[in-house]
């Protein structure tokens, strides 16, 4: 088993919680106390047989020793500690790992505090931009000055003219009162950008998308209740046959009275699918390939039949707001569609037999490249789990719109990812599959593949959307993938040195750097220097 900075800490914590001494546990394991001490201090690797023996003695599931959850937490804490805010502080990887293992609640609280700090920074930046450029603020400022002038004029007239009759005096006072009310509304409008407590209040919450990402990551992208619901629902069809659009259309028409039409350009040209809930009408774009038509039909089946299940699952601490819960329901609906179209047991067996050949899985299950990649990341059922994958989707500008990591790869939460990732290189060869062995600054290696995908165009006025999708795993799991055949994984000839994102990367010799490295890693002025520094040089 690969060495992990978490296993020893977790082992020590579990032993102490059960009031077992090192000598007692070592004796029951059949090893020396000194060797157990080395295990607890991460100076020896815990083998699989020893791990299983430990699980029985400590009466815990072997999954307790899985590093995925804490590894994700370690990554986020490390990201936070690279912030210039902590420029004068230095923390080793071992110290961070020990904190995550020994004090997970404290580590989570630190992460939440840092997220709130970053949100406040973003709010301040947006506020500054709006105050200086936003035409709404400019208009509000103009109204503010106008109303103040009008109020002052009305009150001065009333104050300075003693010969005003009661009627005229009342009219000017009414003008001042009306303008005062308008002034109050204008001030509230200008302050509304920070009126939700996002800067100083206690009601801070992550964005809905970030919250859903945390929700899925915390559950390792596996939802057994949805898997069971999808399997039972599929059994109402013929579970041994490949589902076809006509089969699902017939179900929707018979069971829910939904009429389905394929739209022309005159019908609509802004969305791939439109569902008219009032009239029970689903309109599908003719631009959609069959795999997408099937997915949208499966999605609607899930929403119509299992929304109460989704609503129950999203009552989770990671989804604190109503907006986050709605995003969570949408994500679970998509999960259901994948589980329904690609039933777990059959898909898992095929993935293993075909050694995760995505193209062959596409042919067997009539799915798109992105759909198959998504389903591969959900194969985390205890007892029959697949390769722990990471999945990233990025647009041509480098914006990450989907991210999940069971492999241990740290995917940046803020900003863009490292430009050396194969995810970005895929745009140079559209449609071709690109493999890469990458190495992080800490020496951890990953094997990844990436390919571009293009969403269908709805017409000339609606340009196509292009994305790159990367899926990969720890180098130790790469031998299970057909894409690694012919590569010497133990001593590969080509390894790409990568980072997480330029702001967090400690590599000082990267020609593609777009931002200076963290302050902690900067060295003094070298005796030899580049007289033509790049953007990220300092």
From TrEMBL:
Region of interest (Disordered), ranges: 513-538
Pfam families the UniProt entry points to: HTH_3, Peptidase_M78, ScfRs
Domain HTH cro/C1-type: from-to ranges: 11-65
Family annotation (SMART domains): HTH_XRE
EC number: 2.7.13.3
Transmembrane segments: none
Catalysed reactions listed for this entry: ATP + protein L-histidine = ADP + protein N-phospho-L-histidine
Domain of life: Bacteria
Claim: Heme is one of the keywords in the record: no
Protein keywords: DNA-binding, Transcription, Transcription regulation
PANTHER family: HTH-TYPE TRANSCRIPTIONAL REGULATOR, HTH-TYPE TRANSCRIPTIONAL REGULATOR SUTR
Family as reported in the entry's similarity comment: Belongs to the short-chain fatty acyl-CoA assimilation regulator (ScfR) family.
Protein's name according to its UniProt entry: histidine kinase
């Amino acid at each position: 088993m690969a060495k992990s900075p978490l296993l020893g800490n977790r082992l020590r914590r579990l032993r102490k919680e059960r009031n077992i001494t090192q000598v007692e546990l070592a004796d029951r394991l059949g090893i020396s106390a000194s060797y157990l001490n080395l295990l607890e201090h991460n100076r020896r690797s815990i083998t699989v047989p020893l791990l299983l023996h430990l699980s029985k003695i400590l009466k815990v599931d072997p999954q307790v020793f899985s590093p995925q959850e804490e590894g994700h937490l370690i990554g986020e804490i490390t990201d936070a500690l690279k912030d210039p805010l902590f420029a004068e502080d230095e923390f080793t990887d071992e110290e961070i790992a020990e904190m995550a293992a020994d004090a997970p609640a404290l580590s989570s609280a630190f992460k939440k505090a840092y997220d709130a700090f970053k949100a406040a920074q973003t709010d301040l930046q947006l506020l500054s931009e709006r105050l200086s450029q936003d035409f709404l603020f400019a208009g509000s400022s103009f109204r503010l000055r106008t109303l103040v002038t009008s109020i002052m004029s009305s009150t001065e007239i009333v104050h300075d003219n003693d010969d005003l009759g009661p009627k005229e005096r009342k009219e000017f006072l009414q003008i001042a009162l009306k303008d005062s009310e308008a002034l109050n509304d204008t001030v509230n409008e200008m302050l509304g950008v920070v009126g939700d407590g996002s800067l100083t209040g206690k009601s801070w919450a992550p964005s809905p998308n970030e919250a859903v990402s945390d929700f899925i990551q915390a559950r390792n992208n596996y939802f057994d209740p949805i898997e069971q619901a999808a399997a039972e629902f599929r059994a109402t069809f013929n579970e041994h046959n490949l589902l076809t659009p006509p089969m699902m259309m017939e179900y929707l028409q018979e069971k829910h009275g939904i009429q389905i039409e394929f739209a022309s350009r005159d019908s609509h040209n802004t969305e791939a699918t439109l569902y008219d809930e009032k009239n029970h009408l689903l309109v599908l774009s003719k631009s959609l390939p069959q795999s997408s038509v099937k997915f949208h039909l499966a999605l609607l089946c899930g929403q119509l039949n299992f929304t109460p299940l989704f609503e129950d699952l999203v009552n989770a601490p990671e989804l604190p707001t109503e907006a986050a819960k709605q995003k969570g329901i949408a994500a679970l609906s998509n999960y259901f569609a994948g589980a329904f179209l690609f039933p777990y047991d059959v898909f898992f067996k095929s993935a293993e037999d075909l050694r995760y050949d995505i193209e062959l899985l596409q042919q067997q299950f009539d799915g798109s490249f992105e759909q198959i990649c998504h389903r591969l990341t959900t194969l985390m059922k205890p007892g029959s789990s697949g390769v722990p994958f990471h999945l990233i989707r990025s647009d041509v500008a480098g914006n990450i719109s989907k991210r999940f990591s069971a492999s241990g790869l740290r995917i940046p939460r803020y900003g863009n990812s490292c430009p050396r990732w194969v995810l970005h290189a895929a745009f140079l060869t559209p449609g071709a599959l690109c493999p890469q062995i990458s190495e992080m600054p800490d020496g951890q290696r990953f094997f990844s593949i990436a390919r571009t995908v293009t969403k269908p165009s709805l017409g000339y006025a609606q340009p196509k959307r292009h994305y790159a999708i990367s899926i990969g795993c720890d180098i130790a799991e790469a031998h299970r993938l057909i894409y690694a055949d012919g590569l010497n994984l133990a001593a590969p000839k080509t390894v790409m040195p990568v980072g997480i994102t330029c702001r967090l990367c400690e590599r000082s010799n990267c020609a593609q750097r777009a931002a200076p490295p963290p302050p902690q890693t900067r060295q003094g002025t070298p005796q030899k220097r580049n007289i033509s520094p790049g953007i990220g040089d300092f």
